[in-house]
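User: Design a sequence. Structure:
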């Protein structure tokens, strides 16, 4: 039986807001991890501390990617 559903139209109207929310959530996760490490890092296995620090670095890279996407979305709106 053929699929008769139409694909949803590309609604990009709220992408900037969604990306901003993703940045805020990611920043909150970074701060939460930093606070956790300050409180418990001395009692943890150094490998676990390193893993959490690496995860935060990846989060920071993701934030930069989100910011780039926001710029692209704003250009598309003006386009």
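Assistant: Done.
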């Amino acid at each position: 039986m053929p699929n008769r559903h139409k694909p949803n139209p590309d609604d990009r109207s709220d992408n900037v807001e969604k990306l901003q929310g993703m940045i805020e959530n990611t920043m909150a996760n970074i701060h939460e991890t930093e606070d956790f490490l300050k409180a418990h890092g001395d009692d943890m296995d150094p490998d676990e501390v390193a893993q959490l620090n690496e995860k935060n670095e990846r989060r920071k890279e993701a934030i930069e990617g989100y910011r780039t996407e926001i710029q692209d979305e704003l250009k598309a709106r003006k386009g």
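The two ends are 40 Å apart (CA to CA). The helical segments are 15-40, 46-78.
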